Amino acid sequence: MQNPPPNQPGAENSKTALGLDANLGAALGYPIGILALIIFIMEKENRFARFHALQSLLYHVAWIVIFIVVAIFFGILAVVIAAISSSGGAGGAVGGLIGLLITLVWLGVILAYLGTLIFAAIKAYGGNWFKIPIVGNMAEKIVNK
């Protein structure tokens, strides 16, 4: 990961506005996006919890955009494959192989999403300041304002 934001001494050991330990609130914000939103809105003092909550929200939004783009691309590809397959010949076999490839790519995308969520939650629970590439920089800029 990239360089962490400036450390706020002891922030990971304090409480959030919800009464949760900061590291627990930060960790739970990754798999439970609504909790990250609540922590980000309510938390005014604890930069550690606020940073991880915002990073989680930005991460989820980025992946929603990625899922939509990939779905549109594969939807168009499926229509093209269906047109090729209906023409007969070896088109059916090629369509089947491309369909398998689409499934494997979707599986890879979903595993990357879930793997990063789990990794981020573990790091946050451990009290570590870290940035997920791209969204971490945006979260740091917003939290440090």
Can you characterise this structure?
This protein is an all-alpha fold and 145 residues long. It has one domain. It is built from five helices and no strands. 27% of the residues are buried. The model has no long low-confidence stretch (mean pLDDT 84).
Brief sketch in words of this structure:
The chain has 145 residues and is mostly helical.
Summarize the helices and strands and which ones pair or pack.
Elements: H1 22-29, H2 33-42, H3 47-86, H4 91-125, H5 135-143
Helix pairs in contact: 1-2, 1-3, 1-4, 2-3, 3-4, 3-5
Defining key terms:
single chain, 145 residues, mainly alpha
Overall strand count:
0
Give the helix tally: 5
Q: Kindly give the count of domains.
A: 1
Helix-strand string = HHHHH
| Contiguous runs where pLDDT drops below 50 for at least 5 residues | none
Largest sheet: none
How many angstroms separate the termini? 22 Å
- What is the global morphology? elongated
Instruction: Look at the structure and give the mean pLDDT.
Output: 84
Rg is 20 Å
What is the percentage of strand-forming residues?
A: under 5%
Approximate helicity band: over 70%
Please identify the structural class as seen in this structure.
mainly alpha
